[in-house]
Amino acid sequence: MKSDTAISKKVSRMRRARRLRCQFKNLHTIRLVVHRTSRHMYVQIISADNSNVLVSASTLEKSLFSSLKYTGNKESAALLGQIIAERALDKKITVVSFDRSGFQYHGRIQVLAESARKFGLRF
């Protein structure tokens, strides 16, 4: 059974995510959505009307999974940022809004964002 601290941390994260998504809904922009667990990261680019996933990548993909020693670190986040940026540019997507899903902007989330910017995405 989860402790009260674990539940309150998740509730706080979901509250932050809801606030962010309301702002993105008003802007009508394409979103770069990030989700992380202790072992993996998942990244999707979602259309402005939230109906389609335009591009996606995760550390569970065989090409990434086999090339990395561990998938829950900053090295894998940097590689994932590079891959999502390259796939987005192939689909002619250059400008997105960064939806960090309520996660704090540090560590793996920050490294992923900086890597995506480095390889051509603007946000």
Topology:
Elements: H1 4-27, E1 31-36, E2 41-46, E3 53-58, H2 62-67, H3 74-90, E4 97-99, H4 108-118
Parallel strand pairs: 1-4
Antiparallel strand pairs: 1-2, 2-3
Helix pairs in contact: 3-4
What can you see in these coordinates?
This protein has 123 residues and is an alpha+beta fold. It has one domain (4-118): Nucleotidyltransferase, domain 5 (2-Layer Sandwich), CATH 3.30.420.100. 47% of the residues lie in helices and 17% in strands. The chain is built from 4 helices and 4 strands, in the order αβββααβα. The chain has helices at residues 4-27, 62-67, 74-90, 108-118; strands spanning 31-36, 41-46, 53-58, 97-99. A 4-stranded mixed β-sheet has the order 3-2-1-4. The chain starts with a helix and ends in a 5-residue tail after the last helix. The mean pLDDT is 92.
Secondary-structure element string: HEEEHHEH
CATH topology: Nucleotidyltransferase, domain 5
CATH top-level class: Alpha Beta
Q: What is the strand content?
A: 15-25%
Number of strands: 4
On the 0 to 100 scale, the average pLDDT is: 92
Structural class computed from helices and strand pairing: alpha+beta
Main beta sheet strand tally, sense and closure: 4 strands, mixed
Strand order of the largest sheet: 3-2-1-4
Which bin fits the share of residues in helices? 40-55%
Domain count, please report it: 1
